[in-house]
Structure prediction request, 263 residues.
Amino acid sequence: MKITDANDATLDLLSLGECMIRLSPEGRQRIEFAPLFEAWVGGGEYNVAYAVARMGLRAGWTSRLPDNYVASIIKNHARGGGLNIDDVVWIPYDGVGRADRVGLNWTEVGTGVRGSVTMYDRGHSAASHMKPGDVNWKSVFAKGVRWFHTGGIFTALSPSTAETTLEALKVAHEAGVVTSYDLNFRSKLWSAKEANAATLKLLPYVKVLIGNEEDFIKVLGMKIEGVKEDFKGLEVDSYKKMVEQVVRAHPQVQAVGTTLREV
Prediction:
């Protein structure tokens, strides 16, 4: 895989996606009974860039945010971790969040036999309103970016974010940037049919594909022998065969990354 030399780039990685504020009860309390909540910053694509920055590489993240105090939590978190946010689209805040807001993610951590619970509160978020043309991708990649990453969570937010993902991947591909896409299927955001239709348009511009067995089955329509509905007891050899199916169907994909795990 050909990756631009570090000396010829200003960023080692740039990611595109939504970042939310996660509100979690202290300890292992339930959301409905908690008097106090801890605020955390995170998002599928944002986390990748933040982690890369923490490793000492030059990472950037782009999205769309309202110019208010809650978005400043994200801004301060990114800057504190050394994450470049020069390409974030900032928009005026209307005072109440009718037009654009920062999405929230209410999460209680499970304990014992009680599993964790996540409740999205991300409707009308600024990131979900992102559309083609909001970012001048040619200008962004002209500055020198070695790797561009995005994923299925951002793509699923709205028809316009799916179009934005396609626009960004196309320009990155034309600029010779290594592109990676995390399938990251979320049934709360869209159906398998919708995910499949949108993702097939993106794959010609993706070099590194990331996902687990559920992602490949539901998003790409792949078949894996020996997989049950609960995705337990998956044989590694069966998964390897499925990955080979993916690469045969999409030969432009140069690498596939996954983690086999049971949560």
Summary: The radius of gyration is 19 Å. Helices lie at 44-54, 69-80, 137-142, 152-156, 159-174, 192-202, 213-218, 236-249. The mean pLDDT is 93.
